[in-house]
Q: What sequence folds into this?
């Protein structure tokens, strides 16, 4: 290659490198800034700016005793989830709790060691993510809401403790301007309360939901469902301390729900409130706002302390209706 040709080639390569740098920088500016340990890719639409910080809570905790009512509800929901996953008959195993009569008779007659316990034979795998609101508004009325939310998550986690279910439980809050903190609980803990971080700060539902959907998309499962347990009202301040407007947050949540639905990830919400003397439920968001954010009335359900277990069963049956009717 001659000298002039070599110089021309060098200039072309330099120009290409500069152009590539510009493209990378443009793409980076369109993404939400993230913490270095974030492995999730955000959805393609723009989100209000914010950084994500993760806190892992893996250590076992002393699980508070579950009431008889909550245990019954967990069992009832577990039966519903068995229908959701598309169970087909059963298989025989060497251990279990339910004895197959024919297998037991065969064992008694032949004296040969054979599997005699019935185990469910699963159809499609089932993936669930639970997003738990741990913001300051959940301390309302002497922390009644957060206790109610943690109780609901405990019931769901117990109901979903099945071999064919892939479960993750994340708390979300914003304790600093522009920072969404995601607390990743070990779902086998049995208790989803922690003082590090304590319940406080804003409600970055838009960021938690985008992260949760991307976590779903990163895994392979025939049934994928994301449940948000919250008092309903998102609130987030950017790094400069400016509050992101409610319409902007609502619009961001709606866009994420629409993208998730298009990618076969179902999103629903359990909205914590309180019964009023009029018989209506008071919550931080109006029904019109909830319908806009989550798409329709069948994607969210009010829940109160007086009727929590019934509300949860109703929410699950409504949210997973298409799976229940197809099995």
A:
């Amino acid at each position: 290659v001659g000298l002039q040709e070599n110089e021309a080639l060098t200039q072309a390569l330099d120009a290409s490198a500069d152009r590539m740098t510009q493209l990378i920088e443009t793409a980076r500016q369109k993404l939400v800034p993230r913490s270095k340990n974030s492995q999730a890719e955000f959805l393609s639409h723009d989100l209000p700016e914010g950084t994500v910080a993760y806190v892992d809570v893996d250590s076992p905790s002393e699980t508070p005793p579950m009431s008889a009512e909550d245990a019954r509800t967990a069992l009832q929901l577990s039966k519903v989830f068995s229908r959701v996953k598309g169970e087909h008959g059963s298989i025989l195993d060497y251990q279990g709790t339910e004895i197959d009569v024919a297998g037991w008779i065969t064992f008694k007659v032949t004296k040969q060691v054979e599997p005699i316990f019935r185990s469910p034979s699963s159809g499609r795998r089932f993936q669930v993510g639970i997003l738990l609101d741990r913001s300051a508004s959940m301390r309302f009325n002497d922390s009644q809401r957060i206790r109610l939310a943690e109780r609901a998550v405990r019931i769901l986690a117990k109901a979903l403790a099945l071999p064919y279910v892939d479960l993750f439980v994340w708390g979300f809050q914003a304790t600093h301007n522009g920072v969404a903190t995601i607390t990743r609980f070990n779902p086998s803990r049995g208790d989803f309360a922690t003082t590090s971080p304590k319940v406080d700060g804003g409600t970055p539902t838009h960021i938690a939901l985008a992260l949760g959907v991307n976590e779903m998309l990163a895994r392979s499962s025939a049934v994928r469902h994301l449940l948000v347990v919250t008092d309903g009202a998102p609130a987030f301040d950017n790094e400069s301390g400016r509050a992101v407007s409610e319409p902007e947050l609502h619009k961001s949540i709606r866009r994420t729900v629409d993208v998730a639905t298009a990618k076969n990830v179902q999103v629903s919400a359990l909205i914590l409130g309180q019964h009023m003397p009029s018989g209506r439920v008071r919550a931080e968001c109006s029904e019109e706002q909830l319908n806009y954010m989550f798409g329709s009335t069948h994607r969210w359900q009010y829940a109160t302390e007086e009727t929590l277990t019934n509300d949860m069963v109703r929410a699950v049956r409504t949210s997973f209706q298409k799976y229940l009717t197809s099995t």
